[in-house]
Amino acid sequence: MAFSLSLATEADTPGLIAVWNSAFWQPGVQVVFPDTPTGREWRRKSFERSMKTPSQHCTHMIVTEDSAEGKKKIVAFGRWFRYGEGEFEMDWSTRWEPELPEDMKVEMVGHVFFDPMARQHSAVMGQRPHYFVEVLATDTEYQKKGLGSRLLAWICEKADSEGLELYLDAGKDAQDLYEKFGFVEQADKKDPKAVAPMLRLAKKKED
Question: CB of 60 within 8 A of CB of 7?
Answer without folding.
Answer: yes
